[in-house]
Amino acid sequence: MLLLCAHGAKHGFERLGWICDIASCLAAFPNLRWSDVLTASSRAGTTRELLLGLKVAEDLLGVPIPSSLPRDPIAGKLVPLVRKRILSAAPIPTSESELIPLCLRMFESTRHRIRYLLGQFAPSRAEYRVLQLPPAFIFCITCFAQSG
Fold first, then answer.
1. Residues 6+ apart with CB under 8 A from 94
2. Would you say the C-alpha torsion 6, 7, 10, 16 has a positive or negative sign?
3. Alpha-carbon dihedral sign for residues 88, 12, 118, 77
4. Residue 146, class by beta-carbon neighbours within 10 Å (0-12 exposed, 13-18 middle, 19+ buried)?
5. The pTM is what?
6. Cβ-contact 138, 126 below 8 angstroms
7. CB 83 within 8 A of CB 60
8. DSSP 3-state percent helix, strand, coil across the chain (nearest 5)
């Protein structure tokens, strides 16, 4: 469940299939130990991503989610944005002008926001090769991207 919601969150839950996967997982594992799931998501700082994925599946597909889950007002405000995008058949992939603000609201910590922005704007290894920058730059960006 955590991986499904994290992947969907990374892409702004832009594909209905990913939301169906969350709903299918809920149906396939009705006795999921939610306390363990919530503990793992809390440790990873991804509780909002989890709750948003679950709330979107509930909203769009009518899948019941446990009433014992914590409430997150920010996740609740993001559900209509995801619903509108899905129901309007917006282009995929989501444009960066839509995705970046959504993800910045979705990520709970400043650290996660910074890592996300670095991933969006930092050059990849292939881009460094095209630019023919010294190998030290590749090493620095690789180490920084993996830290945290």
1. 11, 12, 14, 85, 102
2. negative
3. positive
4. exposed
5. 0.80
6. no
7. yes
8. 70, 0, 30
Tokens read off for 145? 């991207």
Q: How many Cα atoms within 13 Å fall on the side-chain side of residue 39?
A: 5
pLDDT tens-digit readout, 37-82 = 999 999 999 999 999 999 999 999 999 999 999 999 999 999 999 9
Q: Which helix (H) or strand (E) holds 73?
A: helix 73-87
**DSSP class of 67:** T
What does the alpha-carbon distance between residue 79 and residue 117 come to, in Å, rounded to a whole number? 22
104-109-115-120 Cα dihedral, nearest 10 degrees: 0
